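I have a small job for you when you get a moment. Can you supply me with one protein entry, sequence and fold together? It will help me judge whether the discrete encoding reads sensibly. Write everything out right here, beneath this request:
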Amino acid sequence: MNRRQQTELAGATISEHDGVRYLHLGTPWVQGAMRIRKPRQIELEYVQRMMAWMLWRPTPALARGHAVQLGLGGAAITRFTHQVLRMKTTVVELNPTVIAACRLWFQLPPDDARLTVLEGDAGAWVADAANLQSADVLCVDLYDHEAAAPVLDDAAFYAGCRGVLADGGLMTVNLFGRDASFERSAAAVAASFGPDQVWQLAPTREGNAVLVAARGVEVPDREALTARAEAIEARTGLPARKWLRLVRPYQPSSSG
């Protein structure tokens, strides 16, 4: 169910503390962040881990193709894929005040030949046949102002996400590590992608647990993964070797 259809969209608000600007939706919950003097640096740990898809791509192809982001947040992923990796980037965001806030306060650049920001519903976008197999990378971070659970989070939605990925494509999704919520969401992803194409990272201190799902990806041996992680760190500064220690294949819960 799309919980955004049940309530009016909350207006974006801004706060700043210790050199970091935060995006909110009318509540204290943080929806995004940017270090003001280092806007291309990904500030929040869970958002850094949303970039773990890079481990599943061969280093020569790391930044090739089309990156799609569902849910703009504070535009950290957008700035990274568009400005650091220099990928073609498309964003789908339902809330126009979030787009406006990111343009004004979070250094979201205007649309150009490599960047398209769409005001629209992510569920409708992945269900649109025009977008089938159009994305190589899909980052999904869809929370409302209460930040309680993803607003799109069922097998039909994740089947749509798989549908928009090209062969070899990768999705990361931000989930909460609370047992019941996480297991339900992970099971829905596995039902759509196949359990052998799903991996999970350990939760952050704040409880965010990132799931990685792929469309037809073969995982190389540990030596090759370590070499990829080192290349990612050299190019981006992100802690990719740490991600390797945190990731494991998806394992369905034995309870229930």
In short: The chain has eight helices and eleven strands.
